[in-house]
Amino acid sequence: MPALASARYGKDNVRVYKVQKDEATGVQTVTEMTVCALLEGAIETSYTEADNSVVVATDSIKNTIYVKAKEHPVNPPELYASFLGQHFIDRYAHILVANIKVTVHRWTRMVIDGVPHQHSFFRDGEEKRTVEARVTREGIALKSGISGLTVLKSTGSAFHGFVRDEYTTLAETWDRILSTDVDSTWQWKLFPTLAAVQDGVERFDAAWEAARNITMKTFANDESASVQNTMYKMCEQILAAVPETEVIGYSLPNKHYFEVDLSWHKGLKNTGKDAEVYAPQSGPNGLIICEVSRS
Ligand SMILES: O=c1[nH]c(=O)c2[nH]c(=O)[nH]c2[nH]1
């Protein structure tokens, strides 16, 4: 006898733009985000018995995303995600969980002739700020993050001492290129209420800045023994810098740059200490993942 083991539904890829206009100065500030809202609760019969009376239409969920963006601040995204999720469990008695994901796209203010422009912006990279909220009547669980922050260092990275056996072809190296697309998350202690999220709301921007700075500073300055060890050092520092976090996570692809032997052409030296021209690889790539919590 089959049984519905789990179910959630809602609207994904809802693109939202909000402008804030300071009438006194003429300065405008913009936020663009992509929102996903998925609901859980007493919705089984919609799957098993074609009972749509328990279904808040995904079209209505999309409408709610826009309305809540109008009614509430969209910054920081942790606050907007909490308002939105809280709405669904307050408004519908049979909805037990609202899963909200907000992805914020970069619009950085232009500086023209040394002066910040009042209303013009540019996309300075595909890095995103993210938040995942799981809102229930027990509280609001928030996981904030950064994704798509592409970084590279041209030296200061080694990898040696790994298992050597009949499957190994990789040479040990004491100097290699290290490049990755940073995906980092920090899970907050459970907020018991929406008011607890609102109280001290500046913690969210401060944590994002700390995580981003720690990631870049550690990436740049660490004499890396491996991706594993460098990411662990990042996690340790974020736990120390943001006391309200419980778990720090990283998922880092190791984007390989291979040396190219050019000795076939007039004896050109382009390997080892003479390496200058490399072949960036699009795949396969390593993928190194960890989560670090307080002991
Ligand atoms: O930092 C690294 N960690 C690995 O686990 C690994 N494996 C590999 O082939 N290269 C690397 N680099």
From TrEMBL:
EC numbers on record: 1.7.3.3
Functional pathway: Purine metabolism; urate degradation; (S)-allantoin from urate: step 1/3
Kindly name one Pfam family recorded for this protein.
Uricase
Where along the chain is 5-hydroxyisourate bound? F159, R176, V227, N254
One annotated Gene Ontology cellular component of this protein: peroxisome
Q: Give the EC class as a word.
A: oxidoreductase
NCBIfam families to which the protein is assigned, alphabetical? urate_oxi
Protein known as: Uricase
